[in-house]
DNA sequence: CGAATAGTGTCTCTCAGACATTATTGG
DNA sequence: CCAATAATGTCTGAGAGACACTATTCG
């Protein structure tokens, strides 16, 4: 940062600044399909449209802390995998004033996702339509329970699309998939998560080999219960996330 | 964004905000080794340390435009591959006040890199020491011309390390490598770029096959000049970047 | 035993690494 | 011809897809 910046920036009120916010893409699985938690806007602007939960960044709070606070206050969720996604800074993304928003991706296991829906926050779940459309990914649509596309507020459709892309990209080289699963899970559940996010079926033996050869999984020795067929072995992550 | 946010946020002066800046990691190649352009700080704080060029984001300018402006004003570079890297928001990253910074990665062909060094801006080049250390990447050190590690200002060492990681990660599935090359280049030059960024040698036949099979390269029909041995075919990118 | 799903064995195809070989330039 | 590097051919081993087969549970 140069001399001029130093002088210009030293007085906090020297010139007007963009407001800074965080927006959260709360992704989880709903009946085996990828879904996102949204808030219906009742006020202008974009009243009646659906928005990602968000909030302004306090002067005394880091970006990560602001995201955690929004997760807690707006979604009633205590803990989730949170990672910074991208920062959106178009001039007209909010008609009220200039707001730059740091988007975060939050991954919820199916259970947390359902609990957030049942909690006090007026959240709704939108199923995501994620057609395969090659690696680069096509459009991502958020659907109502009746399968109709929802109108999203602001630039939140862009944020959502980027979230799905990021998740897809990290799926096979990172451990993000496990953030969408309970602590113990079967290989079939793990494959279902991958298939739901990718929007394409995968080869079973190859998938199992790849996952087991990676060495991240540890068999628990117990098996799933309540099936009317051969129960599958339960695994957990060998190394802590 | 909720009702409360709406009311709290509507008055632009309602509560203090973090300042918002962009910082640029200007990466290029110097004698075949990865290098970064830095400014030596003359003023407090961190006087004498080396910093990434940066500047505040104006109210009427997008993040990308702010990055382009810094590229132009602070580095004298008209055009470069620019992509957003990550947003840094630690509370104490700048001792003067709370500044949140959106870091950008700028990739320069060897020629632009040299021109920026010779230009009016008081930039210096630091060679990067990028040991292989596996995919996750070890520490990245910026070295002076005498090979001594440079002390970086603020959290700029973190930003630099992340820039190298991102570049490595995108090397083989994106076309970023071509942003470091002139418009026409040989396959050997392309391989040199990959090896410099990855910090590890690559297998020649396999590398050639992979690059040619990808279909991105178009032979120009001309060959490099000035060699005392068999000159290599010159290629260019088939599809526009 | 039948239904349903878990889990495995095996063949093939693709692709990367390794190494050797041929091709082409200047001197 | 020699030196130096470009460019290619070929063998091998790792890993994914496809498909069939065996295993285990409930009823």
Automatic annotation (TrEMBL), chains A, B:
Residues 16-153 form the Nudix hydrolase domain. The keyword Hydrolase applies. Keywords: Hydrolase. GO terms for molecular function: hydrolase activity. CDD domains: NUDIX_NadM_like. The keyword Hydrolase applies. It holds the Pfam family NUDIX. It comes from the Bacteria. This is NUDIX hydrolase. It comes from Methylobacterium oxalidis.
């Amino acid at each position: 940062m140069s001399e001029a910046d130093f002088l210009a920036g030293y007085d906090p009120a020297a010139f007007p600044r963009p407001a800074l916010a965080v927006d959260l893409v709360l992704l989880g699985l709903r009946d085996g399909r990828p879904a996102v938690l949204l808030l219906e806007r009742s006020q202008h602007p974009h009243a009646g449209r659906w928005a990602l939960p968000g909030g302004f960044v306090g002067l005394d709070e880091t970006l990560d802390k602001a995201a955690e606070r929004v997760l807690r206050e707006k979604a009633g969720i205590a803990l989730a995998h949170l990672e910074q996604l991208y920062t959106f800074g178009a001039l007209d993304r909010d008609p009220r004033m200039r707001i730059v928003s740091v988007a975060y991706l939050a991954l919820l296991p199916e259970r947390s996702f359902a609990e957030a829906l049942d909690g006090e926050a007026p959240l709704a779940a939108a199923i995501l339509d994620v057609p395969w459309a090659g690696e680069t990914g096509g459009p991502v649509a958020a659907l109502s329970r009746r399968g109709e596309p929802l109108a999203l507020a602001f630039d939140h459709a862009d944020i959502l699309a980027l979230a799905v892309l990021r998740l897809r990209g990290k799926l096979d080289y990172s451990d993000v998939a496990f953030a969408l699963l309970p602590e113990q899970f079967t290989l079939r559940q793990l494959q279902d998560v991958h298939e739901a996010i990718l929007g394409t079926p995968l080869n079973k033996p190859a998938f199992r080999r790849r996952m087991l050869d990676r060495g991240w999984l540890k068999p628990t020795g117990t098996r799933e219960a309540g099936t009317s067929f051969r129960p599958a072995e339960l695994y957990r992550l060998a190394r802590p996330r």
